[in-house]
Specification:
40% of the residues lie in helices and 17% in strands. It is α/β, with parallel strands linked by helices. Among the domains are: 73 residues, no CATH class; 89 residues, OB fold (Dihydrolipoamide Acetyltransferase, E2P), CATH 2.40.50.140; 155 residues, P-loop containing nucleotide triphosphate hydrolases (Rossmann fold, 3-Layer(aba) Sandwich); 159 residues, Rossmann fold, CATH 3.40.50.300. The chain is globular, with a radius of gyration of 32 Å. It starts with a helix and ends in a 9-residue tail after the last helix. The structure holds adenosine-5'-diphosphate and magnesium ion. Magnesium ion binds next to helix 13.
């Protein structure tokens, strides 16, 4: 088989040998010809262009010049010895400098001859020079060769010491790329290649390293990215198909008494069109006979709770129980209260189960669940404990999903003979590309419309020095009857510094807002749950004006009268967290405000985060910026994804290619669900080879 070539051990490559082979393995995990070919350049330097010496500045990347090398001289002693020379062209000159290999330089450059010089200009002591340039006599040949993009490869300190710097790796790539002619089997189906006019595998592997021109480099890159995305999409869609085929879902085909009577008599406001659409999507899913696995995205405040409730009522109408799982106690309690408020006197039995539920109550609850008398159970992680058993659990709603591990979710499955339908709600919008890769096997519903009458939250950024002004503003708001959050970062629960900041802040606020005129609450993670709850409730009831808190209030808390969110040390929060926090206000009819407080010195990224917050309220836009700033690897919930199996493709930049790949993956599986046809043999084999080295794809739900 032709692809044996790619499996050839790397030590068989000329210029490698056992020692370098070991190094390549240790440093870069390169074991075979194929691995080396997949060690793609991270960029190219344009060697088609010759700069004039007068154009050179310190912030240019690598540049290429042409001229005579004159005036070689030594200066300094011992370790600080160095050699300088001038590169002289028709316009002027630039200094070249060497710190090592000085002996070898003597007499190397002949006056009157012209050289090609290549290197990175830097500014040293106010003067521009190029250290350790590559130099070559100008000949027909090297002018021709120089008319190409030169690949740059990442290397390590250790590999550099053994001559495998970027240039050393380039030499190996060159040797290899001269051998690949007719050796590399195509792995994409012919049809895909011709439909999308993609380069062949062989051509793309050649051109990605040594492109003949920038256009073909781009085509090579696109082909490789496409294939990377295609593999991911094929895997995700297969997981989804297999689940749909092998896992039967409960059929909820009745819209019954509970759903209808709630809709008719208890709905406190008309649903938005987005809410209606999403409920319809979920209903269709749950009535299809397949098990639902759906991701429900909606910005903070878009009204996901009522959607969840109506879906749970639907489960009840079909004779099933439902549960709603929240990431924290506070949130679970809040959900419990708001559901009870929404349901009023409807005959729906709702229970609450958290870590703090007393043993006696717990026993009663367990009984009611097993007997099927309890219709809806709200709770925290406590829900997934083994002794919690349902008579017939039909729907699980998971709120703020990213806080739950995969393992925990899968436990819920085992609570019934058939797995329940699963609705995952997230208030942190996920950029489309990320959703498509991470949750590509889930169906997705989006609430893209806010309830009417909401005023845009006004966001401003102040420096700590402007604090007095902020206090003044707070007083005005309190006088107008509003309530205020002041949130402190508590990145690490164990960091005493963070607590000190919080307590200092609390003290200074208590001083500026003294009793009896003002009342200030405080809530943080080191308080006993009962105290926390007590304080929280005081604020919810409007008995205190200001809530000083850590991020425990981040998600879900709903106090419509709170109209100001002040975020201290805002530079220490990530964008999605800032957006979440801001979502705690703007829930009532009043104009709401978010004030971002930071120190005077802000890094570039922090500044961009603040500016983004000030500029927009759109969670999806914010999520996109967040993704770009942090990269996919850092986003919450993505660490476990193994998403980084991607080498060239970048979900923050290659959305269009990803889209194509998704479409093609669906087409391929449509025609050949198991990838068993011979036209797909090479594709399947390539996916298997890749899979050996990464990811557990069965991870979701
Ligand atoms: P989230 O999507 O952040 O969970 P919630 O479900 O908590 O949002 O809803 C936020 C607020 O908006 C709640 O006070 C809720 O009662 C209200 N709300 C939800 N849907 C509507 C609607 N269609 N019209 C008016 N208010 C609504
Ligand atoms: Mg919510």
């Amino acid at each position: 088989m032709a692809n044996n070539f790619l499996e050839t051990p790397i030590e068989y490559l000329k210029g490698v040998g056992p020692e370098r082979a070991k190094l390549l393995k240790q440093e870069f995990d390169i074991l075979s010809f194929g691995d080396l070919l997949r060690w793609y350049p991270y960029r190219y330097v344009d060697r088609t262009r010759f700069y004039k010496t007068t154009e050179i500045s310190g912030d240019l990347p690598y540049v290429q010049l042409r001229g005579q090398i004159l005036g070689l001289k030594t200066s300094g002693q011992g370790k600080s010895m160095r050699m300088t020379a001038q590169l002289v062209d028709a316009n002027g000159s630039v200094e070249l400098v060497w710190f090592a290999g000085l002996k070898w330089l003597q007499g190397k450059y002949k006056p009157g001859l012209e050289y090609v010089v290549f290197g990175k200009p830097t500014v040293y002591n106010g003067k521009i020079n190029i250290a350790h340039p590559e130099t070559e006599e100008v000949t027909e040949d090297n002018l021709k060769r120089a008319s190409a993009l030169q690949p740059m490869y990442s290397s390590s300190e250790r590999s550099k010491m053994k001559g495998l710097d970027s240039k050393g790796i380039m030499k190996l790539q060159k040797t290899l790329s001269l051998m690949i002619d007719k050796q590399i089997e195509e792995t994409l189906p012919e049809k895909t290649i011709s439909n999308l006019k993609l380069l062949s595998k062989e051509e793309s592997l050649r051109q990605i390293h040594f492109p003949s021109n920038p256009q073909i480099q781009q085509r090579a890159e696109a082909r490789i990215k496409f294939e990377e995305f295609l593999h991911i999409q094929l895997r995700l869609l297969r997981v989804k198909m297999m689940r749909q085929e092998n896992v039967r879902g409960w059929v909820f085909d009745t819209v019954g008494e509970k759903f209808n009577s709630f809709f008719k008599d208890y709905l406190p406001f008309p649903l938005t069109n987005a809410q209606k659409r999403v409920i319809k999507e979920i209903r269709q899913d749950m009535g299809s006979g397949k098990q639902m696995n759906r991701l429900l995205q909606g910005d903070v405040g878009s009204g996901k709770t009522i959607v969840a409730l109506m879906c749970m009522l639907l489960a009840n109408d079909n004779g099933f129980q439902a549960c709603l799982m929240a990431p924290t106690e506070i949130l679970a309690v809040q959900h419990f209260n708001s559901l009870r408020e929404l349901l009023q006197d409807m005959p729906v039995h709702v229970g609450l189960l958290t870590g703090n539920t007393k043993t006696k109550d717990r026993r009663i609850l367990h009984e009611a669940l097993r007997a099927g008398e309890m219709h809806i159970l709200i709770g925290t992680h406590a829900l997934i404990e083994d002794e919690v058993q349902f008579k017939n659990l039909g729907l699980v709603v998971i709120d703020e999903q990213h806080r739950f591990g995969v393992e925990q979710r899968s436990k819920l499955w085992r609570k019934n003979s058939n797995p329940p339908h699963i609705l995952v709600m997230t208030a942190t919008p996920i950029p489309r590309t990320l959703a498509m890769t991470l949750y590509g096997d889930l169906d997705s519903s989006i609430i893209d419309e806010m309830p009417p009458g909401r005023k845009q939250i006004k966001t401003v950024h102040y420096y700590d020095s402007q604090r007095l002004r902020v206090f003044g503003f707070m007083k005005e708001q309190i006088a107008a009857g509003r309530q205020i959050y002041v949130v402190y970062p508590l990145i690490d629960e164990s960091k005493t510094m963070d607590y000190k900041n919080l307590m200092d802040g609390y003290e200074s606020i208590s001083r500026a807002f003294p009793l009896p005129e003002f009342k200030v609450s405080i809530v943080h993670g080191q308080m006993k749950p009962a105290d926390k709850n007590f304080e929280m409730q005081r604020f919810v009831k409007g008995e205190t004006n200001i809530m000083v808190a850590t991020t425990v209030i981040e998600v879900g808390v709903n106090v419509p009268n709170a109209s100001v969110m002040i975020i201290e040390s805002a530079e220490r929060f990530g964008l999605s967290q800032l957006h979440q926090l801001r979502g705690r206000v703007g829930r009532g009819a009043e104009q709401s405000f978010c004030i971002l407080m930071t120190g005077a010195k802000l890094g570039k990224d922090s500044k961009l985060r603040m500016d983004t917050m000030v500029r927009t309220n759109d969670g999806f836009e914010i999520a996109e910026v967040d993704l770009k700033l942090r990269g996919p690897g850092d986003l919450e919930g993505t660490q476990q994804s193994g998403l980084l199996g991607l080498r060239l493709a970048d979900i923050t930049k290659d959305a269009i290619i990803l889209q194509h790949a998704r479409g093609v993956a669906a087409e391929i599986l449509d025609d050949d669900p198991t990838l068993g046809k011979s036209v797909h043999a090479a594709l399947l084999q390539e996916m298997k080879r890749e899979q050996k080295s990464s990811v557990n794809w069965g991870r979701i739900s």
